[in-house]
Amino acid sequence: MEESIFEAKDLTKKYKGTMALDCVNLTLRRGEIYGFIGENGAGKTTMIRLITGLSFPTDGKMTLFGKSGAKELQKQRARIGCMVETPALYKNMTAQQNLEAQRIQRGIPDKECIQETLKLVGLTDTGKKAVRHFSLGMRQRLGIAMALLNDPEFLILDEPINGLDPSGIVEIRELMKRLNRERGITLLVSSHVLSELYQTATQYILLHQGHVLEELTQQELDEKCKRHIAIKTNDTTKTTTVLESALHTTHFQVMPDGVIRLYDNLDNMEDVARVLSQAGLLVTGLSLAGDSLEDYFLHRIEGD
Amino acid sequence: MGKLLHVEWYKLVRDKIYWILLAVIVLVNLIILSGGQQFSLSGYSFLKNIMQKEVITIMMASIYGGLFVGRDFEDGTLYHEITAGRSRIQVLLAKTIVFLLALNGLILIFPLLGIIYCTLKNGWGIPFTAGMEFYLLFVFIAFVLLNCAIGMISMLAAVCFRDVGRTIGIPIILFFIMIMLLNGKYAIQYAHFLPIGMLALVTNGTVHPVYGMLLGSIWSAVLFVISALVFRQAELR
């Protein structure tokens, strides 16, 4: 059984009449990169605040590294690295001094980790420049460096590519993947740039109006978003038989609403239509379909 | 706790605003007092006089309190300690201790320099009697504790409002209210309860410094407890 890093049971957070999280049940397993998806106000940052101890749940239970209870959760947070919303930086200090403050606070004995972390995020040449003079992208990188300094087991990044230029986005994406692959760090990444998240995450959590709408793996998402011919006929069973016998394919899936998703013959839509008609089926829908993560997310929240 | 104190100290030492303000306070006091006879007084007389003229210094130091504490809330840097699994009370305590040391540094730098200068130049002024060292020590501790009580207003404002503007603004408003009360009909009565009034009473010898120590301790402790209660359950955004 895979070890769970974080578990939420009926986790609820209410702010003056607004339900930010409503009985959320969630399990994050070690070694995955979780993409946290949701509109503004869906509850992503609230969830991150609860995990990091910046906020308290109204109800429900949290377990971090298998431990629960306020004292234990507090202790376990030492194993987390996080950047919540905008990077929290000492603006009058340099990048190195920011990390030195973090090193002291975290009780890390090895001073070498500062240079290593700066190198990791590409901030080695900032010298004596105070953070207040940094660009948004540089601040973002430093925020990630602050989160990484203690070599966390669980890294939480809220909008990590905010303000980064295209090459910076690629670098941070690769960094996240490398941290996951080489150090086994579990990541929880929230972002509005879903195309970017799609290239990083191995698991997705769709949050909508304080509820977990869906949890799915990369494979499941690929399956659901895959390009296909969506076929709707008057007889689903007969259609599948025709597809198998006439087109010699089993690469299709019958969806709960009766739509058949055919994943091959994508370039032969006319043949598919002809075969179905010849079999005496009434074709009520035949179209080429396929979702991006954005499309899929939008369809899901519209259907909720 | 040691690491938290260390990191707060690290931040204070690297805060240019603090050192600039320290220099400005010395300069402002020199300008204000340059026209008078203050620097021809003995060390003891200078001590008696100076704390009653420190109103502007205390106000400037309170402004720094807003910056030192409020900035940490506004920039979210205080949250590093909490997300690292530190106890909120310890985080607040470490911040409070370093902040109050910094505040006392700002308020007491000029009086201490002035006393040393006047004593070296004009002598101590009165015979150094037995027990005087304890009296002076008590006066010093009373000053420190009363300054702490004044500084704790900034700390409470920071914890309640979590931004720089109000953390600076609210203590200044309270400060002016205290000054008005201390210039009113019941000034002496209020002076016995308000830290800034007690500073004057201790300085001019109206009350024994032990009362100042007691009042400073009570105000500091009460304001810290309220701050801790607010901060313990605060939703940090």
From TrEMBL, chain A:
GO terms for molecular function: ATP binding. The keyword Hydrolase does not apply. It comes from the Bacteria. Keywords: ATP-binding, Nucleotide-binding, Transport. It comes from Acetobacterium tundrae. Pfam families: ABC_tran (PF00005). Belongs to the ABC transporter superfamily. Residues 6-234 form the ABC transporter domain. InterPro entries: AAA+_ATPase (IPR003593), ABC_transporter-like_ATP-bd (IPR003439), ABC_transporter-like_CS (IPR017871), P-loop_NTPase (IPR027417). This is ATP-binding cassette domain-containing protein. PROSITE patterns: ABC_TRANSPORTER_1, ABC_TRANSPORTER_2.
From TrEMBL, chain B:
The chain crosses the membrane at residues 17-35, 55-71, 92-117, 137-161, 168-188, 208-231. Pfam families: ABC2_membrane_4 (PF12730). The keyword Glycoprotein does not apply. Keywords: Membrane, Transmembrane, Transmembrane helix. This is ABC transporter permease. It comes from Acetobacterium tundrae.
